[in-house]
């Protein structure tokens, strides 16, 4: 359980997340993920990183139960900072990052894949931000990188999800494959990328980030300010207390 890094093929680092049962990451998990991605990107022998997960789904966001157990704001602050670091680590990774997504990709998962350079998804993958159902705000910055603006808003307000096929139609998912073929497909794309000159890839990544129209770190931190406001006002606790209960609004 946790985050581990392997080298399945030359030039490719595979970062795997495993926090059963649904990959809802605790505070330490977000920091561990950030550290693993940054370390892989700094490795001169790595020319592409593949980010994937074990278990039922790619990522279920923040561990809400960890927040519920904390009577203060320590866990919330930790989760906010940890998510920001993990998302930034993917975006700022010195080499391209390919996200291999199966099952649910929710909340913080959107922050990860929205900052990746490419996404390969299993046919059962679904993407969404259930933040309004969990007493939080955030990662609209990253969802907006996956779907058009008005669809992003409708998904955000309703907490609905989009399928891998739908994101493929919007051009944000590179390829959709049966779940058993996911890792091979992601490693195939990563291998094609890793065949390029490593120094030139690093320059290309920096260049593409430099012309990005949105400062994703700043805009996400702006969103998080409203999450903390919701907590201070008490509305976040009121909504979060319904998490996991039947017939919740």
Automatic annotation (TrEMBL):
Respond yes or no to whether keyword Coiled coil is given for this record. Answer: no
Q: Which InterPro entries match?
A: ClpP/crotonase-like_dom_sf, Enoyl-CoA_hydra/iso
State if Cytoplasm is listed as a keyword.
Answer: no
> According to the lineage, what is the superkingdom?
Bacteria
- CDD domains, alphabetically? crotonase-like
Q: Which UniProt keywords apply?
A: Lipid metabolism, Lyase
Protein family per UniProt: Belongs to the enoyl-CoA hydratase/isomerase family.
Q: Kindly provide the name given to this protein in its UniProt entry.
A: Enoyl-CoA hydratase family protein
Q: Which organism is it from?
A: Streptomyces zaomyceticus
């Amino acid at each position: 359980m946790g985050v581990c890094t392997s080298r399945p093929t030359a030039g490719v680092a595979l970062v795997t997340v495993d926090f059963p049962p649904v990959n809802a990451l605790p505070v330490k998990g977000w920091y561990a993920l950030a550290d693993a991605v940054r370390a892989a990107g700094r490795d001169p022998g790595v020319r592409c990183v593949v980010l994937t997960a074990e278990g039922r789904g790619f990522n279920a966001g923040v561990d809400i139960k960890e927040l519920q157990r904390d009577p203060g704001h320590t866990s919330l602050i930790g989760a906010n900072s940890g998510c920001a670091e993990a998302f930034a680590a993917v975006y700022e990774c010195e080499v391209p990052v390919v996200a291999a997504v199966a099952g649910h990709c929710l909340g913080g998962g959107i922050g990860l894949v929205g900052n990746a350079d490419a996404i390969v998804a299993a046919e059962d993958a679904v993407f969404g931000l259930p933040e309004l159902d969990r007493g939080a705000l955030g990662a609209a910055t990253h969802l907006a990188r996956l779907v058009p603006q008005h669809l992003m808003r409708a998904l955000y307000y309703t907490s609905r999800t989009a399928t891998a096929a739908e994101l493929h139609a919007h051009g944000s998912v590179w390829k959709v494959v049966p779940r058993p073929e996911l890792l091979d497909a992601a490693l195939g794309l990563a291998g094609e990328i890793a065949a390029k000159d490593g120094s030139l890839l690093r320059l290309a990544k920096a260049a593409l980030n430099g012309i990005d129209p949105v400062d994703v770190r700043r805009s996400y931190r702006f969103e998080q300010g409203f999450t903390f406001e919701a907590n201070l006002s008490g509305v976040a606790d009121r909504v979060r207390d319904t998490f996991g209960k039947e017939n919740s609004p």
